Amino acid sequence: MKKFTTTFLLTIAFAILAISCSKEKTDYSVTVTFPKDVKADSLYLLDFKGDKVIGVTPNKEGKFVFTGKAKEIAPAGISNSKLHLYVPFILENDDITINILDTNGNVDINGGKIHNIVYSYEKDPEYKKLEMERKRVSKEQFTGLDMNDEPKVEAARKKVDAAANPVYKIKNEAFKNILNTDNPPIAKAIASTMYSAKDYTVDKVMANLEKYKKEVGTSEYITYYEKMMNEVKVMEDNAKAVEVGSSFKDVVGKDRNGNEIKLSDLVAKNKYTILEFWASWCGPCRGEIPNLKKAYAKYNGKGLEILSVSLDAKESAWLKAMDDEKTTWPNVLIDGEFQNPQVVNYGITGIPASYLIDQNGKIVASNYELREFDLDRTLSKYLK
Question: Quick check: 148 pLDDT over 90?
Fold first, then answer.
């Protein structure tokens, strides 16, 4: 009887141990490693809004370890601004390792059930090969390229696009497959916010999120994304109101001396006025400034004016950028960044955003018509 009791108790003990081992983790541990030739003094964990959750320094082994409890499963990222590093992943209560393989953005991420579903394509050998080729071609084509040589720039972009398209196709097919097969609702919800297609409209995204929300339950990520999609719908409607052929909407801001400048005043005084929304932190915006300088030098005497409107959150960053760039046309700062009503009026979700306005207040060209080589071509039509 004693032998039976002992055996029975051992069986129960092992059963309890097995059950406890099968329980889902209630906290996370994210371990990040770098190759020996890369030195980092700190790393930040960012949430899905891009806000810093926690910062850590390397331990004695040189590893960066984030620990805590995730309230929900949601996209996140690790970041180091000095290294220009940002690695996206899905944060969930699990043991996750992120191995930075090199300085070209190649990483290996393991752990996390939902992460492994959403980012399944990263384990695909074909994807890895194509992604490495995309990076190689991009670096090869643009290193030392004369950005003023239009034929060479266009040829380089075609080669980069040809290398990038199959990479994006694999990613998109992976997200589509998640949506169309049996997967956890939160994985489908996250994939639905990453999937893209010409016919995948804001309304379809919203319909998917509404469906998955009922299965997932409370999710700050889904709520946040729904709010963002609603804002995008408003922006799309507003953008239609300032399409080519429409009348401009006035913008008022203050220059570096505190003087108020109105777009309407400039429009009334000049044959044509370029309205350019930008910010100091926006690389493409800064990249367009040399083109604007050339245009200003060539066409200002023929009746062209430019009003640059900064969406910088910090005045000091805006002032420094103007000093660095040495722009000579009117430049103003407005409060509230993308939430400023004047920006919302134009339906702007990304910058640079540009509009060419004639003296009657009519928008005659916008955005890509006012970029790079097309800027001079467009202006030459109107300013002889």
Answer: no
